[in-house]
């Protein structure tokens, strides 16, 4: 299954809202509703979903404006901590230690933060090799490619898993994120758990310089580098995979292609994290799972907000926007616009109560 490749949106000054896709389902309502402007920042992986959510929310609330800057997960978290954005989007949750140590400028001290796994999407392992559309690879082989222990496409480890594919005698160029990236954190988390003997660097947001490869900024940069290169391979949110070749990863005894359904399946077999607040719904993904039909290279991207804001200004808009995002209507809009997997009823019930309590 391939997702539609949406164009890159560059927002620098954030003086206008995102350009919005007309193919996303519009909400019902008379178009009046809430008013005010809120600013969010964070994961570029959420860019397509944010376009869908902003359009749907603003159609129902024509006097409200949501501005979103896809500067990356790390930048979004930093901006939220410093009070430059009233909500953040991040491809990883804050750690328990970060929550204890940070002073969130916009939040009333001691009231904690809300973290909602609002966007669930596979991370596609994308490649550009002439006349090859798909490959079957296990975790150790994927890890060895990105550590450069495997550097030719016709290496026996790749060929043995793809006996019917004509592989070229060509150098592999592995492309990684240049910036601190939640997508990198999720991808390396998969490698660390599923191939611990090969990938020994753990789950990290910043790519290790000792592995070399080609660095590219943000999701769009990785996709462009793989698309415009020869013999390239990289990793990106599946909504941006376009027509590139993709990898089916080995889970148990089968190879599983990425899909929204397979991404949702791995989340449903994974527990919530321990030691977190009542409104912190961080999920501990079981990336080494051998359950049938799960795709473990998955990204859960969070929407992050205060439980209680110091300023009352636009709190109704913040609450209303998050309420739309997690609603069945909002999740359908993201699925249509970005190919993401709607959150489960379990997640919705918990998040809905937490969003309603924002003040």
Automatic annotation (TrEMBL):
<feature type="signal peptide">
    <location>
        <begin position="1"/>
        <end position="22"/>
    </location>
</feature>
<dbReference type="InterPro" id="IPR050962">
    <property type="entry name" value="Phosphate-bind_PstS"/>
</dbReference>
<dbReference type="InterPro" id="IPR024370">
    <property type="entry name" value="PBP_domain"/>
</dbReference>
<protein>
    <recommendedName>
        <fullName>Phosphate-binding protein</fullName>
    </recommendedName>
</protein>
<keyword id="KW-0813">Transport</keyword>
<comment type="similarity">
    <text>Belongs to the PstS family.</text>
</comment>
<keyword id="KW-0592">Phosphate transport</keyword>
<dbReference type="Pfam" id="PF12849">
    <property type="entry name" value="PBP_like_2"/>
</dbReference>
<dbReference type="InterPro" id="IPR005673">
    <property type="entry name" value="ABC_phos-bd_PstS"/>
</dbReference>
<keyword id="KW-0732">Signal</keyword>
<feature type="domain" description="PBP">
    <location>
        <begin position="34"/>
        <end position="329"/>
    </location>
</feature>
């Amino acid at each position: 299954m391939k997702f539609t490749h949406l164009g890159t949106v560059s927002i620098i000054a954030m003086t206008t809202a995102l350009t919005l896709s007309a193919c996303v389902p519009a909400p019902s309502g008379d178009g009046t509703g809430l008013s005010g402007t809120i600013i969010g920042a964070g994961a570029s992986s959420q860019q397509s979903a944010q376009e869908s959510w902003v359009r749907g929310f603003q159609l129902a609330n024509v006097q409200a404006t949501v501005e979103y800057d896809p500067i990356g997960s790390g930048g979004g978290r930093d901006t939220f901590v410093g009070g430059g954005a009233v909500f953040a989007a991040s491809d990883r949750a804050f750690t328990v230690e970060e929550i204890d140590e940070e002073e969130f400028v916009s939040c009333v001290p001691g009231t904690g933060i809300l973290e909602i796994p609002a966007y669930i999407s596979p991370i596609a392992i994308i490649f550009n090799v002439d006349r090859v559309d798909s490959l079957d690879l296990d975790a150790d082989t994927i890890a060895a490619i990105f550590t450069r222990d495997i550097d030719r496409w016709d290496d026996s480890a790749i060929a043995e898993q793809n006996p019917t594919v004509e592989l070229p005698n060509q150098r592999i160029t592995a492309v990684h994120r240049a910036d601190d990236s939640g997508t990198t954190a999720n991808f390396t988390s998969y490698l660390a758990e599923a191939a611990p003997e090969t990938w020994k660097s753990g789950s990290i947001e910043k790519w290790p310089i000792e592995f070399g490869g080609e660095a590219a900024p943000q999701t769009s940069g990785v996709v462009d580098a793989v698309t415009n290169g020869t013999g390239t391979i990289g990793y990106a949110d599946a909504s941006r995979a376009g027509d590139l070749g993709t990898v089916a990863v080995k889970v148990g005894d089968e190879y599983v292609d990425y899909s929204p359904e397979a991404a949702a399946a791995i989340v449903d077999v994974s527990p919530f994290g321990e030691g977190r607040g009542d409104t912190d719904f961080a999920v501990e993904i079981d990336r080494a799972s051998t359950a049938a039909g799960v795709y473990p290279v998955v990204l859960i991207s969070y929407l992050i907000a205060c439980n209680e804001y110091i300023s009352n200004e636009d709190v109704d808009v913040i609450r209303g926007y998050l309420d739309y995002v997690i609603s069945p209507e909002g999740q359908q809009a993201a699925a249509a616009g970005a190919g993401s997997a709607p959150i489960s009823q379990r997640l919705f019930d918990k998040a809905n109560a937490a969003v309603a309590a924002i003040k």
